[in-house]
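User: Design a sequence. Structure:
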């Protein structure tokens, strides 16, 4: 089971405003779009993307505003090492809100927010680790670190690629075994105070790209993953499971020769 992270989905209140924000400030381009009955889905990413880099999926449901909860933390995007301050100042000059500047984060990273309040972390990486502004990781909060680590290790065969522990919380980074440096990681954040979290509806899901949807789904069921929305209920185009905290995880195959990125 390869299981590379394919995209992360966030819901937005005003699609055109959000598209303008990501296309202007992160220089993303629209990769594909699906117009459904009462909703629109758009895939975004840097112009030049490695095949292992993940996309951002923005979903807009007509007539609905979104509420950001705290079960999901942020997406993180990459800038070259040594250029954090330069890129942050560029965002400030473009009118992005000053949320957490590099100085307040020890010069190691920074944060901004998009129009809906989704937090976007800016991290420094070697250029070989992915294009500027490409997705580096997605952070989700978990209520039990052992359960969360066991889920990603047992169900998806992910492994630790890094961790950071403090007096009050710990961060664990997970990727598939032998994943490329360009691949997005999932960051599991565990707070030691035993708090619980509110999902809201602005956070959608992570998506894992599978080699064989039916075969890998059966393997996940053998490994006792949550049978949330199986392939058959989705016309064998995609499926969904949930982790131990209820974070939704989409599963799909990618046909490199398909005319559309969407399996519809």
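Assistant: Done.
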């Amino acid at each position: 089971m390869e299981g590379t992270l394919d995209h992360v989905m966030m819901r937005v209140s005003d699609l055109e405003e959000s598209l303008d924000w990501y296309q202007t400030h992160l220089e993303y381009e629209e990769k594909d779009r699906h117009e459904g009955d009462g909703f629109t889905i758009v895939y975004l990413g840097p112009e030049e993307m490695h095949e292992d880099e993940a996309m951002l999926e923005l979903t807009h449901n007509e007539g609905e505003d979104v509420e950001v909860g705290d079960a999901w933390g942020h997406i993180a995007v990459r800038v070259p090492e040594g250029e954090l301050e330069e890129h942050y100042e560029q965002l400030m000059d473009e009118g992005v809100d000053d949320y957490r500047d590099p100085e307040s984060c020890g010069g190691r990273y920074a944060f901004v927010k998009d129009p809906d309040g989704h937090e976007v972390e800016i991290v420094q990486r070697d250029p070989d680790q992915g294009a500027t502004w490409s997705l580096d990781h997605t952070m989700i909060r978990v209520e039990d670190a052992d359960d969360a680590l066991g889920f990603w290790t047992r169900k998806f065969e992910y492994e630790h690629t890094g961790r950071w522990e403090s007096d009050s919380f710990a961060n664990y980074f997970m990727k598939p075994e032998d994943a490329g440096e360009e691949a997005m990681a999932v960051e599991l954040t565990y707070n030691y105070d035993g708090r619980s979290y509110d999902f809201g509806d602005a956070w959608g899901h992570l998506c894992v790209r599978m080699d064989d949807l039916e075969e890998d789904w059966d393997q996940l069921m053998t490994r006792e993953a949550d049978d949330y929305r199986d392939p058959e209920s989705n016309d064998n185009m995609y499926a969904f499971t949930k982790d131990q905290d209820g974070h939704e995880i989409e599963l799909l195959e990618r046909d490199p020769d398909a005319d559309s990125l969407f399996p519809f």
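The longest helix spans residues 145-156. Residues 4-252 form a domain with the 2,3-Dihydroxybiphenyl 1,2-Dioxygenase; domain 1 fold (CATH 3.10.180.10).
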